[in-house]
Structures are given as C-alpha cells and as structure tokens.
# Entry
Amino acid sequence: MIEVGAGRSFSFELTAQDSAQAATLLAGRHPMRKAGPLLVVVASLLVGGLVALAAAKFSPGGDARRIFGLATAMSALFLGVQYLMLLRIALNTTRASIESLGWTGQRIHALIDDAGASFDSGQVRLEWQDLRQAIEGPAHIVLLSNTLAPIVIPKRAASKDTQILLLAPQVRA
# Structure
C-alpha cells in the first residue's frame, strides 16, 4: 500500500470532452443499459400479440400472423426509440451533474491526504468515509459520493501512484 503521508497534490483542467467522456462512462455502467434491450423485446412481443389478437377479433378475415408481425415491428420501433431517448436523457443529466461543480475550463488544484481529497483550494472536500464508489475508466477516474456531484479526474493529470491512492479507498474492510 502506498502511504499518503503529508499529502499528494496535483492540478488538472477539466475540459468539456472530459465531462462528456465521464458521463458516458457513468451512463454505460447503469443497470438499465444491460436490461433495457431485453425489456424492449419482451414489451414489443406482448404489445404486438395484444394488437394482433385485437385486430384478429375485429377483422376475422385478416391474416393474424401478418398483423402480429406488423404490430410487433411497430411496437419494437416505438419502444426502441423511447429507450434511446431515455439513455440520451440519462447521459445529458449525468453530464450536467458533472458540470455543476463549475470546473469545466478551470484549473483545479487537488490535495489527497489520509482523510480524503480537497479540490480547488479546499472549496470542495471529499472525505474517504463519504466515498461511495471510485470508477476507473480508460482516461478518467470518477469519484462518487452521496453528497457531491461526480468528481472527474483526468488520468493525464495524476501520476500512477496518485491514481492508486484515488482508487484504494473504495476497497473497505
């Protein structure tokens, strides 16, 4: 384990692209991202079946298989578009939450110590006990807590040792 000692400091500038990439990282980890397509298929089949049954009852001369196929395709298209719109809303909401700290385009100074991390000369303080999750992506580390907006730290700004320190608190005894 790496000891923090007196503290480790670094600076970074958060760009709009950093915010977008971090929002994508967080949205990609949402449980609905995996369950959503399955729910769309199941709901489409149910709605398509109901529409086919109703159409067959009201027009006995119609081909039920054709009606079922068209109804299912229309339902899948509608529900798929709704699912994509919800993902886009989630992505935009996450990005707005990240940008709510007002760090985009600003130079942020960070200090990591035994108790937590301070950002922007102590204006934002994250205690390790309040850390809910530290997520490592290809280019960013995102710190999540119950009290603060997601804190995005570009990996390019922190040394490997500092990255290890940021990710270490998530493993609790």
In short: The first helix runs from residue 16 to 28. The chain has two domains: 8-25+101-170, 30-99. The radius of gyration is 24 Å. The longest strand covers residues 8-13.
